[in-house]
Amino acid sequence: MRFRLLLLALGSFAMGTDSMVMAGILGLVADDLEISVSAAGQMVTVFALAYALLAPVLATLTARWPRRRLLLAALALFTVANALSAVAPTYGLLLATRVLAAAGAALYTPSANAVATSLVPPEQRGRALATVMGGLTVATALGVPLGTYVGRVDWRLTMWLVVALGVLAFAGLAAFLRELPAPAASLGLRERLAPLRNRRVVEAAATTFMFFLAINAVYVYLATAVGGATGGDTGRLSVILLVTGVASVAGSWLGGRVVDRVGARAVMLAGGPVAALVYAALPWLGESMPGAVVYAVAAPLAGWVVAVALPHRLASLDPANAPLLISLNSSALYLGIAAGGGAGSIAIALLGERWFPLAATVLAVLATGLAAATTRERPGTVRATAPAAPGAAESGTPSPSGASGRR
């Protein structure tokens, strides 16, 4: 059983590496295709936007598919799309392949989570989800720096690395993942979007969007922000990305425990200003390796602590429908990533390559203000506890059991 969960996690690792490694190879892509770094960053925007929009639609269209067939089809689409990315001769074709890769990821991730819960007894579902989604977390710590290092001479080698990971996951699941339970009854698209009629749900989703907009306005263009420290050396950039990944894992772990103690509202109102201050310091920190490492530790710690609080807040609004609400959090998250790529590009054009992180400072302050304004406790409000529901893994962040979130 554990082995099959690890195979599902390998697929998540491939997806996570693909979606996040672009931050380390934008410069190489820009040079090869003779485009600006800002234009290359739109690969991230296109992938994230396609994922956010396609995930609920594809989940509805494939609701009756056998789970094994769906997982294999998703991995096949994802792997072929990345192979096409590796050989794309033009920028336009490269963007088209990123849409295909996002469609594969949008099919795979929710299905892998559902399959994981069907492979274990109810009391072990949280650990099963943690194992599968651990692939995404490990991708930030290992996949991204490895992919950046492999592609230090030719970015297309990075894409072939992702293809290899996809092939391994496909082969493993095809060989060992058999006799899966039939898919449970699935909601239609109308039912999936119904919670958006609730103003508080919209406020919470908007807060998730704003926080990830701020985070990714810098992360997508991190190689540019720390260019003074790396001098364009991919090996140094790989070190910074490795530190960033490890700090992200640590922030996710810490976030779950801090939310348990003080609640989601306190975490958001503390973590947001810390992130804003670090972004404000990045134009100076990014000029030296010690400063860049300080940033690589501080920013992910603050950002991922908040990232854990966001789905907890949404789930606390209606614990009975926590999986559905957290899937909305996932869509808001990916929309934030998509918009972050665009916002960072605009900031570079307006403020220049050194000072563009200041735009993320403003966005982080706005996100914190939105969190403060929309989480005030109203008279008669009863605090609810958000359980770690099976759908929690769709948020892209671990969801520790029993965490409470103040509305």
What does this structure look like?
- This protein has 407 residues and is an all-alpha fold.
- Helices cover 77% and strands 0% of the residues.
- The radius of gyration is 20 Å and the shape is globular.
- The chain starts with a helix and ends in a 33-residue tail after the last helix.
Please give the count of helices: 17
Radius of gyration: 20 Å
- Shape, please? globular
Q: How is the biggest beta sheet arranged?
A: none
Tell how many strands the DSSP assignment holds.
0
What is the percent of helical residues?
Answer: over 70%
Q: Which regions contain 5 or more consecutive residues with pLDDT less than 50? A: 379-407
Helix and strand element order: HHHHHHHHHHHHHHHHH
- Intertermini distance: 37 Å
Coarse structural class? mainly alpha
Instruction: Give the overall average pLDDT.
Output: 84
Query: How much of the polypeptide forms β-strand, as a percent range?
Result: under 5%
Concise structural overview:
With 407 residues, the protein is mainly α. It has helices spanning 2-20, 22-33, 37-40, 42-61, 67-87, 91-118, 125-150, 155-176, 189-193, 199-219, 222-225, 227-230, 234-262, 264-285, 289-317, 322-351, 357-374.
Key terms for this structure?
407 residues, mainly alpha
Strand-helix topology:
Blueprint: H1 2-20, H2 22-33, H3 37-40, H4 42-61, H5 67-87, H6 91-118, H7 125-150, H8 155-176, H9 189-193, H10 199-219, H11 222-225, H12 227-230, H13 234-262, H14 264-285, H15 289-317, H16 322-351, H17 357-374
